[in-house]
Amino acid sequence: MTPAQRQNFERLLCPRHVAFIGGTDAIIAIGEAKRRGFEGAYWPVNPKRHTLAEIECFATVEDLPEAPDAVFLAIPAKAAVKTSEKLREMGAGGIVCYSAGFKETGAAGQTLELQLKEAVGEMALIGPNCYGIVNYLDKSALWPFAHGGDCPGYGAAIITQSGMLSSDISMNQRSLPMTHMISAGNQAVLGIEDFIDILCENPATRAIGVHIEGLSDIPKFERVALKSLAHNTPIVALKTGRSEIGRSLTISHTGSISGANELYEALFARTGVISVNNPTQLLETLKYLCVLDCPKGNKIAGFTCSGGGATMLADYAEYIGLQFPAFDKNTTQILTDLLPPIATVTNPLDYTTPIWGQTDATEPIFCAALLNQDVQAAVLIQDYPAAGLDESKIYYQNDAVAFGNAARSVGIPAAICATLPENLDFQTRNTLIKQGVAPMQGLHETLNAIKSAVWWNERRTYLNNHPYEALSATGDHRTSVTINEAEGKRLLREAGFRVPVGGLASSKVATSIADKIGYPVVLKMMGPKLLHKTDAGAVTLNIKSQEALEQAITSMQASVQAYDPVATTDLFLIEKMANPPLAELVVGLRQDPQFGWVLTIGSGGILVELIGDAKTLLVPTSVEAIEKALKGLKVAQLLNGFRGANCTDFSCLAQTILDLSTWVLKKETQLQEVEVNPLFIYETTSLAVDALIQKLA
Length: 697
Description:
Strand content: 15-25%
Structural class: alpha/beta
Distance between the termini: 36 Å
Shape: flat
Number of helices: 23
Strand order of the largest sheet: 9-8-11-10-12-13-14
């Protein structure tokens, strides 16, 4: 975003006057601006009508009193381009282009969108093909449908690539405080990254929610996400859709097990962006982050007036890695004295119905449990009665007040959670927010939100102290060729990596190579069509004699001939048979046109695609990130001394993989992809048993 665009976006965000250009859609937009409470000037523009929404019309934009700060544009696509050009010449601030018929319609629409972009110049443009923007903070709206939402002076900014989803979110019945809603549309000029860049600076925006179908500039997203992190503004992302990113690179195992979804998850982890998998979790996580400070750890005190609720809390918390630590001896005694005799002192704590709703009894219990316990967050389960059946509601309210008072007295974030989302009414939600308690809807959603808040707080601290080098991307696929395994291993050896001793030979002299390096040996046929040699029967292991080697060559030639006659060659790689490893890994690095270099680490050998045990990191990365990824693999159990076996040195292994990444980056103008599978792992060393390398043509 240029300085001029930024200034114009500020005009669009907080306009003094708005031009509404169009017919019926413009009338609705005028109504939505009034609904939001916009007090500036309304300037309808329509050459065929005298009034819009009972406001006198201007025939053309040239007739306006001055250049408008903001424009709601709802006319056919070709006319929208011409009108935008006139608005630019007048010095207008920004446009919400509701008009459709641009790149979403195909080649002709793509041409129109390029013309629109040129016509707009330095104006701020949201869209085209979008719903627009609602500024809850400053009471303005450029929006074509009825919308809801409220702002108590702070809240979440929501940015979506789906207009309907943005409308649905504005109508949510979850009391999510909001500062802004932006439907990004086609993002011809301004995109998700630009909106994050500005909104994260606003102290009233306590969190940003983003719905992403796809990103066009990954390095730019990384920059603004880290900027938001530096401003202590969490981003919560809902990524939807399955793109074709990286699909041309699936000749390797790592290309097939690390697709678009894995790349986005790696990007989010790298930049401290909380990733969620459904709209409900998006809203509940944002609500928790907006109402409360992030917990400083994952230890929680839980309270219920039901043994069933306590069990559900404990079960799901254990599943996702949250802790309900047991009370210490002193706290247990205090609680035993305060609770009815039927109560059992555990965390989560069922404080039982005999004292339910009695503030003088429940508040001391909440205080004792929170004051004397090493916890960083608190949650109380309450499912409120429905309207007309709410004679007992006062008891719930009393306990809620007692719980909130206790949490404030010890300074930890507190949430009240309805097991069933609908069992928390509007009045109760808003009352709790005013009291500084998060009204959470759904037990799993609540605990997921707490876990995400803890993760974000830890990730922010880590990234502030351990910044990564910035990502870069080529922006396109480049032609490459695959070199044979022997040449690939030669390159790895030159770079300082351990590969088996061996050599290339024809069938006639293969035994002389084997005699030289010593038996047992491995035999592999080399050829441009033998990228996955095991599938073709082009690999024989543990050959122990000359006679066995000759038999293996004959058998291999027949096997490959049957698999693919064109793949058969008379070139073989003979290598010393490696000692059995602790485990086998696959390590791959490949260039993605959007994400740049991608590192994938997983269970290797025949397990690579069978169990899909892999972690994806974006490069440049760090030893710490690689070691964490290694320890997160299922195969880590083997590396960590399974059933009394020796352990590998994880930090040493991580450094080896980082060295490989560093070497590849230095060769990035020559290489497209490097995969080692399997990489044999020993206690302090590793061995590249097989390698697939693609060089740029």
